[in-house]
Amino acid sequence: MGSPLILASGSMARQTLLKNAGLEFVAVPASIDERAIEERMPAANRDPVTIARHLAIAKATAVSREYSGAVVIGCDQTMSLGPRIFHKATSIDEARETLESLRGQAHFLNSAVCLVQDGRVLWSEVSRACMQVRDFSDAFLAGYLERNGPEILSSVGCYQLEGEGVQLFDAIAGDYFTILGLPLLPLLAALRQHGINHA
């Protein structure tokens, strides 16, 4: 293994994916103001795919400045329904509004991943998953919110597919790793290409 590998994220799901894939890395969450960075982007570039890529690179770049020579994995995920871009709900009432907005519609999870070394972008990619939410009842929604509580506020869509959140959906088109916020297969290929992945 050549350069040290760093994951610029505190996400346990992302860390677990990398550990399960046999990678040796350290996790160093990036300390950036995502909303401020997003607001500084030109309005014409504020589509969900570009925002995800831009924030992933910003996170990796911030960490790479502190760790000379390390290869840093940056990740970000946006959720979009038509032109609307969602952010994490900060309360159960906001979570209810988010889920009511998604009910009966298809939305996208846009997961960006990149590799940055010494402030230079080596590679980046955005993978998308289409999530078809079923037309669930108000009674189901109330029970779901009550049973899952504040835990769902950690996810932009107020759901975790590995839990009861899977019951919100009729269909899903896309990669499971993308849904979890880390397009793993393209990342592993990029790491092999750059001589970092031992596999």
Give a quick precis of the structure.
Helices cover 35% and strands 25% of the residues.
* Major sheet characteristics: 7 strands, mixed
Uncertain regions spanning at least 5 consecutive residues: none
- Annotated CATH topology: Maf protein
Number of strands: 7
Distance between the termini: 10 Å
SS content category: alpha/beta
Overall tally of structural domains: 1
* Strand percent estimate: 25-35%
Number of helices: 7
CATH class category: Alpha Beta
Arithmetic mean of pLDDT: 93
Radius of gyration: 17 Å
Give the overall silhouette: globular
Question: What does this protein structure show overall?
Answer:
- It is found in: Cytoplasm.
- Nucleoside triphosphate pyrophosphatase. May have a dual role in cell division arrest and in preventing the incorporation of modified nucleotides into cellular nucleic acids.
- This is Nucleoside triphosphate pyrophosphatase.
- InterPro entries: ITPase-like_fam, Maf-like.
- There is one protein chain.
- With 199 residues, the protein is an alpha/beta fold.
- The protein has one domain (5-193): Alpha-Beta Complex (Maf protein), CATH 3.90.950.10.
- Helix content is 35%, strand content 25%.
- It has 7 helices and 7 strands.
- The chain has helices at residues 12-20, 34-40, 48-64, 92-102, 138-148, 176-179, 184-193; strands at residues 5-7, 26-27, 71-81, 84-86, 106-117, 120-133, 169-173.
- Strand 1, helix 1 (12-20) and strand 2 form a beta-alpha-beta unit.
- The protein is globular.
- The model has no long low-confidence stretch (mean pLDDT 93).
